[in-house]
Amino acid sequence: MSRVEAGRPKVVPHFTPAERAARGKAARVEIPRALQAEIEISKDRDPVALLEEQTVTRLPELVPTRYGRMLASAFAFYRGGALIMAADLSRTPNSGIRTQLCGDAHLSNFGAFGSPERTLVFDVNDFDETTPGPWEWDVKRLAASFAIAGRDNSFSHKERAHAVLATIRSYREAMHGFAAMRNLQVWYASLQMEQVLREFSAGVDVKQLKRAEADVAKARTRDSMHSYEKLTHLVDGEPRIINDPPLIVPIVELIPPGQSRDQIENEIRDLFGAYRRTLASDRRVLLEQFRYVDQARKVVGVGSVGTRDRIALFLGTDDRDPLFLQVKEAQPSVLERFVGKSEYATHGERVVAGQQLMQAATDIFVGWQHIKSPLDGQERDFYVRQLKDWKMSLVIEAMSPPALAAYGKACGWTLARAHARSGDRIAISAYLGKSDAFDRAMASFAETYADQNELDFAALQAAVASGRVKADTGV
C-alpha cells in the first residue's frame, strides 16, 4: 500500500434499508433464532483458572476481597465473572452482525445518573469491557443475569421466565422502533427515570413504586458535595480524604518508604495534565477552575476489585464547591481475546469512546490518561469520570417478580438503543423478526446458563475451601 493510499480516509459503505433488512433475514436463515439457545461448555473448562489469570495484573492484597465479594451469592459471582462468560459466549452461535458492546451488560450495570442538562436519565453505566462484537453477547449476558438474580430472590421458574421474556421482548420491539427511525432520531433518543416509572411499571406493587419514586428524589442529592461530606475530614485546616483501609487509603499512605512525599504528591498532581488534554475545550476550562487537593485508592464494585482505582478531590471557589473525580484503571477488555484487540492506543480511550457511543448522555468530565505511576514506575491506562453525579441503582434484592420484569423492560429498551447507535439496527431488527422465537431462545439460554453459573460458583467455593485461593468475606 502506498503512503497516499494509507492516508486516505476510511470508505464507509452505505446500503439501502432493503439491503440491510435482507442481510438480517439471510443471517436468520444461516443461524436460526432457536439456535441462539444453545451453548457448548468445554469439559476441561476451569472457571477458577480464568479468575486467577486476572489476579496477575491486580493488587495482590485486594484479590482476597474480590473473591470474598464474589462469594456473597451466585449473582455476585456472576457479576465478577465477566471473563468466564466471555469465553463461553465465544462458543455460541451468532448472526455475524456486530455493534459496540457494553461487554458486561448484566442488570446491575444499568442505572440512573444526571445528564449535562440536569435530568435523571436511565442508561447503561459500566463500560470497562466495551469493544465491538456480536450484539447477541450483550443480550445473552443481560438475559442470564435476570434468571440468576431471580434465583437469588427465590423466584419460581415461571416468574424468572416472565422477567427474561419481558426483557428480551422489550429489546426486540425497541429495535423494531429504532429500525424505523431516522439516524438523528436514534441518536437523540433517551430514557428519563420518571419515564421508566411511568411506562414500564404495569403490575408493580404501589409500595415498590413509591419506594422507587423516593429513591429518584434522593438520587438528586448524590453529588460531589454529598461525597465531600462523607469522605473527607479536616487536617490542619485543609480537607483530606479519610483513611478507611482497605476500602479507602489516602495516596500518601501508599508512598513507598524512602521516597519523597512532596515529590510524589507533585508528580501525582501533574498526572492530571494528561487527562485534561482529553477533554473538550469548554470542559477543560471548567476543570481548570478547580485546584487539586487530595487523592486516595478506593475499592469499588465486584469485578473491578484489585484494579488501581482512585478518587481525587478538587476544590473550586471554596470548600463548599468540591469536585470528586473517580480514576479507574482500564485493563484490556475481557472480550478482546475473542474478538480482537482494540483499535485504540490506550484502554482508557477505548472505555471513553465506547461509553460515548452507547450512552445517550455522558458525564461532562469523562476522559482518560496513560501514565507512568510515580508509586511503582509502571505504565497504566485509566479513565476518569465524576464519582457521584445523581447516581442511582435500584435494589434488585428488594424487587418482587413484577418489579423485576418491569425493570427488565427498561433494560431491554436501553440496550437496544445503545446497540442501535452503532450497529446495523435494520439488520438486527430483521433478524429478530416479529415473532417471539428469539425471546423464547433467550429464556432457554438464560436458565441453562444460570445452571452453569451455579456450578461455577460452587467451583469457587470449593477452591476457597481447599485453600487454592484465599477469600476475605469481611469487606
TrEMBL record:
Pfam families assigned to the protein according to its UniProt record, in alphabetical order: DUF2252
Q: Which domain of life is it from?
A: Bacteria
Q: What InterPro entries is this protein classified in?
A: DUF2252
Name it.
DUF2252 domain-containing protein
